């Protein structure tokens, strides 16, 4: 089971007393801010939750699993997330 965006908006609205429209605006603002900052290489730390960062992946040669043919995989930027100790402790409690 997963929490959808609609479910998350409803949960935010219930917990904060905001309307669902305002909760959606807040969630969208957080999401777009994180995305914009990661694009520029800025690391984002959310206390008690974790840290978002980026890492460069070099170009490499892979294989097509169906044909075994060599395929060139382009260099890319990967998003990394490291959970905070507080979050890990709460999940494991």
From TrEMBL:
SMART domains: BHL. It comes from the Bacteria. Keywords: DNA condensation, DNA-binding. One of its GO terms (cellular component) is cytosol. Pfam families: Bac_DNA_binding. One of its GO terms (molecular function) is DNA binding. The keyword DNA-binding applies. GO terms for biological process: chromosome condensation. This is DNA-binding protein HU. It comes from Achromobacter anxifer.
């Amino acid at each position: 089971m997963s929490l959808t965006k609609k479910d998350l908006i409803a949960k935010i609205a219930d917990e904060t007393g905001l309307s669902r429209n305002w909760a959606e605006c807040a969630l969208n603002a957080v999401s777009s801010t994180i995305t914009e900052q990661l694009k520029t290489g800025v690391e984002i730390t959310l206390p008690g939750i974790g840290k978002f960062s980026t890492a460069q992946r070099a170009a490499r040669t892979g294989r097509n699993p169906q044909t075994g043919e060599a395929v060139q995989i382009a260099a890319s930027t990967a998003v990394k997330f490291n959970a905070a100790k507080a979050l890990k402790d709460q999940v494991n409690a």
